[in-house]
Fold this sequence. Notes:
Elements: E1 2-7, E2 13-21, E3 24-34, H1 37-74, E4 81-83, H2 85-97, H3 105-116, H4 121-132, H5 138-167, E5 174-183, E6 207-214, E7 220-227, H6 233-247, E8 253-256, H7 263-272, E9 276-280, H8 287-293, E10 304-307, E11 313-318, H9 320-342, E12 360-363, E13 367-370, H10 372-377, E14 384-389, H11 395-403, H12 406-417, H13 429-455, H14 462-469, E15 473-478, E16 485-489, H15 494-506
Parallel strand pairs: 5-8, 8-9
Antiparallel strand pairs: 1-2, 2-3, 4-15, 5-6, 6-7, 9-14, 10-11, 11-14, 12-13, 15-16
Helix pairs in contact: 2-3, 2-13, 2-15, 3-4, 3-13, 5-13
Amino acid sequence: MFIRKKQNKSGSISIQIISKVKNKYKLVKSIGSSKDQNEIEKLVELAKVEKSKLESQESMFIFEKDSMLLEYISNISNNQVKTIGPELVFGKIYDKIGYNKIPNSLFRHLVISRLSFPLSKLKTTEYLYMYQGIEVNVDKIYRFMDELSDKYKSEVEQISFNRTKELLGGKIGIVFYDMTTLYFEASEEDDFRKTGFSKDGKHSNPQIYLGLLVGLNGYAIGYDIYEGNIFEGNTFIPFIERICGKFDINKPIVVADSGLLSGKNIAYLKKLGYEYIIGARIKNESTELKNSIITLEKSEKIIHELKRKTDDRLLITYSESREKKDKKTREKGLKRLEKRIKNNQLSKKDINNKGYNKYLKMKGEITVEIDYDKYNSDAAWDGLKGYVTNTKLTSKEVIANYSNLWQIEYAFRMSKSDLRIRPIYHRKRARIEAHICISFAAYSIYKDLERALKLNNSEISIRNAYELTQNIYQVEILLPESKSIQKIMLKLSEKQQELLKIVNQTF
């Protein structure tokens, strides 16, 4: 507020108290007018006193409003505040993919919980109650899990496949397959959970194998789980046949790592009419081929093509960065061997072809030493990578397609870190299978969100998106007059607004 002297047409001056509200001037109070200068000065002094009173009253009113507001806010309880971000983002994608066709709402809650707060099933019930206001007994969850895989796995796979086919333009021409181990915290084995070679480095823990099939860009197609001590190569052909038969996929090109396909599997794939691209174990080729490989020109601009006796094409590429990595890895292995020899930790029984033990040899009858000639000769293989294929694709197309295999490795990393699919605490096979089924659906949603963010050239990462959903809140307020409940979403950050806009426009 301020005091204004207004010149009137009669020649007098009016003394007024004026306020400015939204860039507009408003007359608060008129004190009086006069032509006499002494009287005008008295009116100004009177206006100052009145202005002070008015400002004091206004402050008291504002203070009362603040006090009322603070009192109201302090009476809002925790159960009136809900975390709605996961449902707004992941729930919308869940519906778009088609998982809402699964009749039991528990599946929805478990999948979205796995995406937003990947916890144990007991902790999931606490999360649902605290943040979603949904009360679910943990025993009810376990009863649902006991029947989930048998009832809904096939449908979950079908829904996921339909979405992948849609995203890839209606055709699945190439598929990528790999396996990983999932370990258990419990130490006891059973008919399903077995100790075996662990890719997680948990060799003493019981484990299972998870086989995953994806299309281009890592979009989910299907999965299976196997006993923890099974040979990986024995799972591949039955799995591919089951998936292709179920979804009527007409002999796609199969891309897999070398560890999955034995010579027997490759021969069987040919017999069934499949084309394939496989990572080659070039050091296991025939002596003739190996001699040819190590004499090839090492150039990143050249893809060498050699013929195998099986009429497959063997492609060889070179990478300088791969050579540096291979050399560094060999040197680390050598230093470990030298340290063990120095500490007398190696004996005749350690001489084998496992890992870097291949560089060991006997000196006399009791002394183990390192065969440095063999170690140095291995340098010829540094930087080389091989691919076996029976396709008619060009060499560049073969390499490009195989390079997409990282998508499935990324899927495993995402599942193990972001979705925390491991370690698994369940003991019953049905619940283990249910846990994998829930994680598979969650992975499909993750990939769809990742695609949407890329399509919109967003700088929001998939991990950042997951974090943003956790802080989108809604308050439920009971209006005192109408006695109706009003739901109010708290103000979003710019990134949260961007995320919701992308999800709403894409799905």
